[in-house]
Amino acid sequence: MAPELSTTRTTTKTDVFNYGALALEVACGRRPIDFNISDGETILLDWVWRCYENGELFKVVDVTLGTKFDEEQMRTVLLLGLLCSHPYPNARPTMGYVRQMLIGNINLPPIPFHKPIVSYSTQNEIEFMDMITSSTSNDGEPSIDNLKLNTLKS
Predict the structure, then answer these.
(1) Helix (H, G, I), strand (E, B) or coil at 145
(2) Confidence of residue 138 (pLDDT cuts 50, 70, 90)
(3) Is 136 helix (H, G, I), strand (E, B) or coil?
(4) Contacts by 38-46, CB closer than 8 A, 24 or more apart
């Protein structure tokens, strides 16, 4: 469930969050919350973030797929799931942007290597287009060094 649903009503950004959660469910072959799995893997979104942070992104792929999947496509789906499930609604892409990423017209922006920390201060909220604008180098190519990570103050 999108984090903002506890304080506001649904928006198109809520739908983007749900799309991201669905993408992760399909790619991982799991439900968003599964109490039959060990504590560190109970919440799918947290587990995918943790595996991504540890450089083990493909560890989350549905085991029934074995090795029968295109790694680049799977990486795109998993990272897109994380991007769409960003805790800040305005940091999520539009579905039009998601579509363009899926068909290959545009590349995924760099995804932060750590799960964004939720802060309910609106002055520190990240905007998706700010991430895109600040994530390109002088030659127009994405650069993780130039990504605006926006440090959140507690």
Answers:
(1) helix
(2) very low
(3) strand
(4) 45/21, 45/82, 45/85, 46/115
Of 3.40.920.10, 3.30.1360.40, 1.25.40.10, 1.10.510.10, the CATH number of 9-109 is 1.10.510.10
Instruction: State how far the Cα of 60 lies from the Cα of 75, in Å rounded to an integer.
Output: 11
Is the Cβ–Cβ distance between 131 and 147 less than 8 Å? Answer: yes
Q: Given this model, what pLDDT does residue 153 score?
A: 29
Residue 88 CB burial class (10 angstroms; 0-12, 13-18, ≥19)? buried
What single letter denotes the amino acid at residue 11? T
CB crowding 27-49: b at 16 or more within 10 Å, else e:
bbebebeeeeeeeebebbbebbb
**Phi, psi angle pair for 33, to nearest 5°:** -135, 125
Q: Which residue has the higher pLDDT, 108 or 142?
A: 108
What number is the average pLDDT over the span 100-122?
82
